[in-house]
Amino acid sequence: MDGMKKSALDYSRKKKIEIRILAQMRTKDDLALAYTPGIAEVCRTIINDESLMYEFTARRNMVAVISDGSAVLGLGDIGHKASYPVMEGKSMLFKRFGNVDAIPLIIGTKDVEEFVETVKNISDSFAAINLEDISAPRCFEIERRLREVCSIPVFHDDQHGTAIVVLAALLNALKLSGKGKDVKIVINGAGSAGIAIANLSNRYGFTDMIICDSRGIIHRGREDLNPYKKEILSYANKNNISGDLKTALKGADVFIGVSKGGIVTANDIKTMNKKPIIFAMANPIPEIMPHDALKGGAFIVGTGRSDLPNQINNALAFPGLFRGVIDARARAIDDEMKIEAAKAIVDYHRNSLSKDMILPQILDEKVHRFIAERVRRLILSKHK
Amino acid sequence: MDGMKKSALDYSRKKKIEIRILAQMRTKDDLALAYTPGIAEVCRTIINDESLMYEFTARRNMVAVISDGSAVLGLGDIGHKASYPVMEGKSMLFKRFGNVDAIPLIIGTKDVEEFVETVKNISDSFAAINLEDISAPRCFEIERRLREVCSIPVFHDDQHGTAIVVLAALLNALKLSGKGKDVKIVINGAGSAGIAIANLSNRYGFTDMIICDSRGIIHRGREDLNPYKKEILSYANKNNISGDLKTALKGADVFIGVSKGGIVTANDIKTMNKKPIIFAMANPIPEIMPHDALKGGAFIVGTGRSDLPNQINNALAFPGLFRGVIDARARAIDDEMKIEAAKAIVDYHRNSLSKDMILPQILDEKVHRFIAERVRRLILSKHK
Predict the structure, then answer these.
(1) Cα of B205 to nearest chain A Cα, Å
(2) How many angstroms separate the Cα of A106 from the Cα of each of A248, A298, A359, B108, B331?
(3) Do the chains contact at B15 and A61, CB–CB below 8 Å?
(4) Of A62, A154, A187, A341, which is most buried with the most CB atoms under 10 A?
(5) Which is nearest to A329 in space by CA: A93, A58, A61?
(6) What is residue A214's DSSP assignment?
(7) Angle of helix A365-382 relative to helix A335-348, nearest 10 degrees?
């Protein structure tokens, strides 16, 4: 067994999370308050005003981290049971960095209808729902429908968490390169992450974008596009270019890879505009390794990996975002909140920005609180 | 606001439960084990052997406390949201007395089909499921169907937890009164608790039983019986007596009330056999108050209330039972395990038994561990 595998199994063999009781439960009187007959008073209070669930119950801070196991990390469709460890790990990140009480929940169906109904039916137990590792394009429909039927925020982190952190990284990289919103961006990968990155970047104001999938550039002439790929053509690939990724990269300023390892070469990067920005986020093997990218003339390189400089990882966004959203009791997470989270990351990192550190460290607890506070304020300002 | 209400709301206004991280999460290396890339190794391990979820994930000790809010305490059908505080309180009891990590889950549908499908779909997230406060007779069908489709124990505590503790109380009361299995038992109330008490007592070996519902004695001539009430006639009311509760009580040794307050009088008790045993468990007002029961000649009186002697409460059974069942990884909870739990309570209390203390205290932590160990051993002995 290799070292990482052994360490990982040893780490998980011990109990990693538990429920902890914060209230006193020592005497009969305590029990009479924690359970019957006292708890009936809390029930009666909520009968009269359901919003008081947030005042008097654990729902106020509970999040479900939910998956069907259909697109787990780089492992693919491994089934809901085998996806549980990822949900548990994510729950730990929620608590560690956002003080959000998150629990892992795996759903034993791949049927979109049944998945939506199941999650809807349990949603009143939670302050928010984090969807995770659900395959595209199912994930788009699932999230859209759950947002319609649930009264709480529903957030597919593989889409939006990624998009937020990529946007923050992009803004910082552009700062360093002295470029602006008119850069030409190439996104490789049109699954959950790629499409969300395109949408949020466009929403922010980037207009020159080309998105590629495994068959090359997405353009109006293609007849094999799902509705979500078609949708991005309303703003992307304005000149309706066709061809492969190499064609797309020519003259581009930014490459964002959420695809698979080893598909970009140093020579490809040489064809890009000057000071090219490379975010090669395929896991575990990036689209191009940083030293190759630098060889090709990359100005800034980021990856998804924690053992390389400039890790671009969702964990920088979702804990603070959820903290802020829950504290402000938002009913949904919209693009404005996501952009605010990205801008908060940029602002927080203002004085520490460098080519080898385009983002704050995930372990920096203050950045999560900073994001939370900015998101909370944004939401509260809109309700005034 | 009265004192109890104020205390109860104050108690619940503060956070009562949270998720706690037990693993180390201080360094980048920790994060690499808690989440990507390390967690992928745990996923791979489970792909190869799903049972390893119990070795490597929080599922091993996670229980869902689930309700649709259709029959909550004495409050009735108050909706799922208003039932949440009870589920949260129950989760606290699970942790406090059984070291079981339980989470409150409320289901936003009253449709049996949809409820079953929802719970089935999330069941692989848990080591066991505790159903709670679901109205009869729906609760019987829901539990039966979930037991069929889930690979983990599904336990409706209002039925079986109550039945276990009543059986333990009954065995102890009979010890004190010097009576045996041939006693005549009258159960008033044929909802979830009444029917489960009848079934488990019969399974234990009591054969002389009459069950009453709000329309009087359940007998073969009645045409208004649901299937569950009909089923108990396979062993109960052998002489096919008809009439009201008063008729039933004449000459009876034991009265078990799971119905409503104030419907039994001292004079009724005078018509019972000598040394009558009275368990008047309606909440918050018992079928007869203890001082009235004693006036009528009751030998032993128990109620559901913590402020009166001889409280008969599920919380004495479910924490230890679940602990034992989870530790032994039983796939279901059967009657033998329930009877073992009742017998464990009796054995534990052997040297402390008195008319004013027919059961151990819920706050006595050792009784829960004793039950757990006895149940665990029973299950493991059967697998040999």
Answers:
(1) 32
(2) 39, 41, 32, 18, 19
(3) yes
(4) A341
(5) A61
(6) T
(7) 140
pLDDT in tens, chain A (384 residues): 688 899 999 999 999 999 999 999 999 999 999 998 899 999 999 999 999 999 999 999 999 999 999 999 889 999 999 999 999 999 999 999 999 999 999 999 999 999 999 999 999 999 999 999 999 999 999 999 999 999 999 999 999 999 999 999 999 999 999 999 999 999 999 999 999 999 999 999 999 999 999 999 999 999 999 999 999 999 999 999 999 999 999 999 999 999 999 999 999 999 999 999 999 999 889 999 999 999 999 999 999 988 899 999 999 999 999 999 999 999 999 999 999 999 999 999 999 999 999 999 999 999 999 999 999 999 999 875
Token digits of residue B4: 């109890």
Tokens representing residue A286 in the block? 């990036």
The residue count of chain A comes to: 384
DSSP B215-260: TEE--TT-S---HHHHHHTTTS-TT---S-HHHHHTT-SEEEE-S-
ipTM, two decimals, is: 0.96
Taking CB atoms within 8 Å and a gap of at least 24, the contacts of B141-147 are B141/B112, B142/B112, B142/B115, B142/B116, B145/B112, B145/B116, B146/B116, B146/B119, B146/B120, B147/B332
H-helix or E-strand spanning residue A114: helix A112-122
Judging contacts by C-beta atoms under 8 Å, the chain A residues touching residue B118 are 117-118, 121-122
CB contact under 8 A, B14 and A22: yes
Alpha helices in chain B (DSSP H): 3-13, 28-34, 39-48, 53-56, 80-98, 112-122, 138-149, 157-177, 192-204, 227-232, 245-249, 266-270, 290-295, 318-327, 335-348, 365-383
- Chain B residues with CB inside 8 Å of A318's CB? none
Token pair listed for B281: 């468990």
pTM above 0.95, yes or no: yes
DSSP conformation letters of A355-382 = TTB-S--TT-HHHHHHHHHHHHHHHHHH
